Recover the amino acids of this structure.
């Protein structure tokens, strides 16, 4: 099946991708990630998008972009159309797909967390939908002993039993052990590669796994790119950004990609909880990561305890450098006390949600969304009397966060006429999973939505009331008992 590349994606590839056909070399004129980000931002400001650079009006648009990127340089890059057609044919033969930040299929997790720093282009092979499911990132050194490899394989198997995807880098050692454990147990795996996507995808033992939806391989680098230390370091943030929690099985101290990625996550990015191995022989690297805020892995032995690691963040006895941004201002919540969970021998605090995206950040390479018209409830209801005429005090001005929340609250409650998981709500609203979780948590705290466990799902409390009211109006006590039974079944109790 021939891959369909959007006009925006074709333009972005021409500007940023090496387009390696066989053993060719990359153009030295390619826009760097930073240069492309500045160009994308400038195009939005002048009400254009990447596809316009190859349109009939391209000459004028290129000239308008001259203050950001040299016009002649962009013309040379955009003139590589024949080379692009060659590599597209090559990718097609190997079932490799390509998405850009301008495409709706681009992983929401990457765009929500990395924002403008998300890779302009993502190459992959396998089921793209797996990239929206989160999971556990497992990382570690290449050279480890057999005992540690066995422990890592066990983590992958337990993740498969719990229905959680393993996200890793595909390197020898820890990465491949975690992935192998999950795949052998029938689980799902995402491999974020720093090189050789094409070669890995063509591997015979991988083909069936890719075809049956068990495995997805992705890379921000050309499918034919060879290993590069810088690329290996840079892709680490993608592993963490695609996951819901992370586990460092082993790490050298102050050197290597595993150390650099974990430190970046703990000190700067703070996307997910960072756990470190807590059994077996210790190491200077793991000890140092704990001092930076990483949490000892609680060594779950069953599905239920494994699921708990995705709901926690930091030991309650410490002030963690991992504390993220709250979606809502602290003054808006009646109870700002973190919810604690006992996991093994450790008391943990529920993790905070990431900061929400603005509309322009959600579609960072396309034209900005039109601003939503301001709503005036009093006018819409026909009541246009002023506050002085009704003797009512003026209403306090809502913050942007409150306005946003009020606009989605009704939509979420309508969705939750039946039980739904957070990622299902996220898909229905076309927002990131973290954004959906933040809204759901707010509704739970406000008493509008009930959170059910094992597995975690949500239902609007108004639905429970509806069932209860219908029961009272039915045929006496027998009708009430029948309706209560139906309601309990619906809620999974």
């Amino acid at each position: 099946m021939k891959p369909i590349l959007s006009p925006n994606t074709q333009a972005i590839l021409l500007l940023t991708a090496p387009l390696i056909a066989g053993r060719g070399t990359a153009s030295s004129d390619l826009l760097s990630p930073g240069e492309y980000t500045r160009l994308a931002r400038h195009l939005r400001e002048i009400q254009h998008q990447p596809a316009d650079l190859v349109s009939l009006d391209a000459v004028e648009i290129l000239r308008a972009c001259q203050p950001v990127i040299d016009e002649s340089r962009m013309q040379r890059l955009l003139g590589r159309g024949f080379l692009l057609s060659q590599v597209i044919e090559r990718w097609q033969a190997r079932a490799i797909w390509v998405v850009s930040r301008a495409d709706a299929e681009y992983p929401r997790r990457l765009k929500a967390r990395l924002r403008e720093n998300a890779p302009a282009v993502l190459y992959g092979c396998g089921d793209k939908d797996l990239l929206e499911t989160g999971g556990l990132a497992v990382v570690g050194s290449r050279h480890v002993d057999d005992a540690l490899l066995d422990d890592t394989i066990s983590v992958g198997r337990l993740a498969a039993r719990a229905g959680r995807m393993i996200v890793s880098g595909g390197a020898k050692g820890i990465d491949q052990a975690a992935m192998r454990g999950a795949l052998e147990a029938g689980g799902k795996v995402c491999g974020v590669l720093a090189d050789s996507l094409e070669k890995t995808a063509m591997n015979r033992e991988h083909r069936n796994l890719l075809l049956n939806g068990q495995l997805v391989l992705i890379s921000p680098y050309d499918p034919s790119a060879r290993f590069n230390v810088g690329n290996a370091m840079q892709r680490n943030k993608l592993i963490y950004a695609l996951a819901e929690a992370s586990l460092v099985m082993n790490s050298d101290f102050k050197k290597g990609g595993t150390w650099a990625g974990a430190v970046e996550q703990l000190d700067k990015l703070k996307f997910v909880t960072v756990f470190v191995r807590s059994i077996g022989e210790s190491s200077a690297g793991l000890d140092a990561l704990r001092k930076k805020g990483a949490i000892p892995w609680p060594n779950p032995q069953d599905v239920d305890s494994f699921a708990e690691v995705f709901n926690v963040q930091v030991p309650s006895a410490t002030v963690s450098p991992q504390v993220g941004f709250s979606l809502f201002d602290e003054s808006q919540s009646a109870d700002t006390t973190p919810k604690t969970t006992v996991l093994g021998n450790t008391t943990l605090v529920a993790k905070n949600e990431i900061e929400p995206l603005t509309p322009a950040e959600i579609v960072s390479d396309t034209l900005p969304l039109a601003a939503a018209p301001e709503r005036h409830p009093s006018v819409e209801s026909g009541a246009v009397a002023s506050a002085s005429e009704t003797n009512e005090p003026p209403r306090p001005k809502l913050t942007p966060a409150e306005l946003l929340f009020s606009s989605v609250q009704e939509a979420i409650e309508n969705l939750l006429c039946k039980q739904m998981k957070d990622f299902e709500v996220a898909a229905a609203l076309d927002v990131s999973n973290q954004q959906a979780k933040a809204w759901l948590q707010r509704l739970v705290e406000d008493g509008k939505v009930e959170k059910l466990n094992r597995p975690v799902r949500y239902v609007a409390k108004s639905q429970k009331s509806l069932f209860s009211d219908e029961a009272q109006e039915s045929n006496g006590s027998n009708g009430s008992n029948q309706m209560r039974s139906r309601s309990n079944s619906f809620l999974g109790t």
In short: Residues 1-93 form one domain. The first strand starts at residue 97 and ends at 100. The two ends are 46 Å apart (CA to CA). The first helix runs from residue 7 to 16.
